Amino acid sequence: MPFGKYKGRDLINLPEHYIVWYNNKGFPKGQLGEMLQLVYELQLNGLEDLVRNIKRKFPK
Question: What pTM did the predictor assign?
Fold first, then answer.
C-alpha cells in the first residue's frame, strides 16, 4: 500500500475490513484501484492464500 495507515504492506496482506470499506466507498482510479478490486475478489472468495503461496515460492 503506497499511503495511509497500511503504507508499505503488500495489498494481499491488508485487513479484510479495509478492503471491504474501499469496496463500499469506491476504489481509487488507476492501477491501484484495479489491484485493490482484485484483492477484494480474492479475499471474498477465500483465495488470498494462493497469492501468499506464490510469494513464498518466488520471493523478491
Answer: 0.85
For position 38, what pLDDT does the model report?
Answer: 96
Residues 2, 49: Cα–Cα separation, whole Å = 22
Nearest to 50 by CA among 33, 38, 32, 60: 38
Residues 16/6, Cβ–Cβ less than 8 Å: no
The rounded distance, in Å, linking the Cα atoms of 1 and 9 is: 5
For 29, 36, 44, 46, 57, the CA distances from 2, given in Å and listed in that order, are 14, 12, 22, 24, 24
Per domain, the residue ranges of the chain are 11-57
- Does pLDDT of 17 surpass 90? yes
